[in-house]
Amino acid sequence: MKAFQTSGSETTAVSRRTMLWVAAATALALPRGARAAPTQLPLVEVWKSPTCGCCGDWMKHLEANGFTTKVHLINDTAIIRRGLHLNDKYGSCHTALVGGYAVEGHVPAREIKRLLKEKPQAVVGIAVPGMPIGAPGMDTPQYNGRKVPYDVVLVRRDGTSSVYQSYR
What we know:
Mean pLDDT: 83
Oligomer: single chain
Radius of gyration: 23 Å
Shape: globular
Order of helices and strands: EEHEHEHEEHEEE
Distance between the termini: 48 Å
């Protein structure tokens, strides 16, 4: 297919491939700051026990989904959880902080991205209490593909919670 450019009384046929090449060359010629930067996901800071392996698998899941993680080794993650005003009943083996929200346990990257996009008010964060088999980081070969149903819970500042997303 051809596109036509008009210059005065002349009409010149230009191929779509040529137009794309010119657009790409123009974009590359722009100063680095003038180009649109890809959307950067915020850093996920993770507090975990030095002996927990599934936490590392969860962080690999996040990294595979575009997040950058930073780990802090700590013997008692409950200290961090309580500092973030997240009740122990939502506890798991690791606690994270991303974009000002607490993320407790094996929360899928998809739900973290959703939380960051929606930016709900009066919310502490989201949690997957316990360590459900099949959740990210708990989906390793040792479980032979087994999965158990679990919920991602939205935890509000007033202490109430609701199901944010169910995985069945």
